[in-house]
Amino acid sequence: MERAVQIVVDALSVGSLYALTALGIGLIFGVMRLINFAHGELITMAAYALLFLFGLPVPVMLCGALGVAIVLALLTERVAFRPLRNADPTTLLISSFAVSFFLQRLLILVVGSRLKGLDFLPELGREIRLFGIRLQVLQLATIVVGLVLLVALTWFLKATRLGLHMRAAAEDFRMARVLGVRANRVIAVAFALSGILAAAVSCLIVVQTGVVQPRMGLQLVIIAFVGTVIGGLGSLPGAALGGFLVGAVSILLQALLPPQLRAFREAFVFIAVAVVLLFRPQGLIPARGLRERI
Amino acid sequence: MPAPCRWTAGLAQMWRRAWLAVALAAIVVLIGLAASFAPAVLQRRTTQGLINLVAVVGLYVFVGNSGVLSFGNVAFMAIGAYVSALLTMRPAAKSVFLPDLPSIIAHAQWPPLPGALAGGGVAALVALVVGWPLMRLSGISASIATFAVLVVAYVVFGNWTTVTGGQNSLMGLSPYVNLWTALAWAVAAIFVAFAYQETRSALLLRASREDEAAAQAAGVNVVRHRLIAFVISAFLSGIAGVLLGHFLGIVRVENFYLDLTFLIVAMLIIGGRGSLTGAVVGTVVIAALTELLRQLEIGFQIGNATIAAPAGLGDVILALIMLLIILFRPHGIAGGRELAWPFGKRRCQPSDT
What is the model's pTM? Predict the structure, then answer.
């Protein structure tokens, strides 16, 4: 019983982590059909911001990580993606791939490729007893942060004017512009939001693993990508659901697979994804307006 | 009004079409010949460049004709490398490194060429099975899914200890790949890619690349033609993997992951993903540039001071060039065009019968 609850909590927390990452990617895809590889570098850079600010008060470190992720997100949009706004999705994909590798290699050039230990918020690693079951504070915190951000994002999209603009832009960008939606502003806000999500994921990951290294973001993002595809590219609820499922399933497999097969966890997850896509090539929650209308 | 063609014009026409492959192959052969007079180090680098050329041409067959970017071809390279390694290694060496191999593989000792073809063949077979669900996805989802293929291959090869040695490298491959073998395969890859892109299937696929909706409306089975291109592409990538394994004499799973993927993709994008010429040009330019940057990283002797660029600068510059190319010349150096026949225009009108 206790083990079952622990596994479920574990699956929920890792699931929320991937859901947040997939949401950050899904937001950008929604407004400009860009699969943003560089989202991983936002996470990495935010983690390095924590490393460099280590020793300062925690709120300062958090603000630093947040600031780095947001500024970097806006900067990449301005430099690498705005000039290509009317290009086809593959060109945008290549551009973000190049940005991602450029930032990663630059980081390796400057700080080296070795992983560095970072003991951020060690008190979150404690265990507490809840109804007689031992649980890690960090996992509960991850679930709470995930839920809070999800609710806040939903509120923003549903209840504010800018959120309305963003949903309109995601559905039909050209039409939204014709009706008076400011393209640059909507896209910049989307990138800033993805920066916030990346910073949150970054802090949680750093607390969880206790290390930073230049490739940490890319590994997360590859799995989150698969989450957005299985959820249905272009659909935000789809991205959240897909990311959550991929994370949760990989934890369940880790717990349920016989030990000699555990190392192949990702392979099983992706095979499951391929099977889902065979039956639903548009994803679990297909997006509207994605297919070109003639 | 051009005159109607005589019967010799048909031959001239064929020659003009085949000219592209011959010209590209000639460029590659010239580079190979020039390298054979160079010092041993440069020869080895050229060999590596030619192996990369096979990989880039392999990637081009799918990416160039379908317009869908693939990040998964390095997985097929890994498959080729492991299959050929397992089939060609001496049974004695295998019993030391991999004592738990199934006996059929443990006792096999194939000659190099069948081993290489088997490597490419198994890669193509895997592509057929994997591609069947993947090619049904829309273009951009398919690109992401090919990334998943890469991750799966990495995880499986890195942990399947009884067959691949897992994180331990597979050592003791016969290092039969030298400048001439690599050159021969590079020329062969160019001709295969050329022959494929002259087929009806490739033409239909390129139509879907230009306008998927229109091609579908005209009755093109996009999924099927993408799958055909994917399988041929995987075969060539598999061969490139075989060559890399037998060039280094060692197969490490780390060698077949993100770094190699980035290099191969960057070469194709910088050269121009829309044409075979672009694939060749990109490989040659980036290989030359990488060599130059490597010299910079080693450093130059000026007086008694050595001026060296910091290690890793080469990768940063490569990524930067790729970014600049995609921003300012999205179709790469070749701009999606093939080498043109340099000796004037067609002088006669082919009859329509």
Answer: 0.90
Q: Does B69 touch chain A (CB under 8 A)?
A: yes
Domain range for B61: 9-257
Counting the structural domains of chain B, the total is 1
**Mutation to test the B interface, candidates A32, A81, A94, most B Cβ within 10 Å:** A94
> Where is pLDDT greater, at A259 or B286?
B286
Share of chain B above pLDDT 70, in %: 95
Which chain B residues are Cβ-neighbours of A291 within 8 angstroms?
A: 138
Partner-chain residue, chosen from A95, A270, A292, that has the shortest CB–CB distance to B152 = A270
Angle at B238 between CA B40 and CA A214, to 5 degrees: 75
What is the greatest pairwise CA distance in chain A? 61
Which residues of chain B from 21 to 40 reach within 8 Å of chain A, CB to CB? none
Q: From 1.10.3470, 1.20.1410, 3.10.20, 3.40.630, which CATH number describes the A2-118+130-279 domain?
A: 1.10.3470
The two three-digit tokens of residue B149, written as one number: 């293929």
Which stretches of chain A drop beneath a pLDDT of 50?
none
Domain ranges of chain A: 2-118+130-279
Give the pLDDT confidence of B246-275 residue by residue, as tens digits. Answer: 999 999 999 999 999 999 999 999 999 999
Residue B267 counted as domain residue: no
Q: Locate the chain B residue with the closest alpha carbon to A262.
A: B159
Using CB atoms, pick whichever of A223, A264, A283 lies closest to residue B156: A264
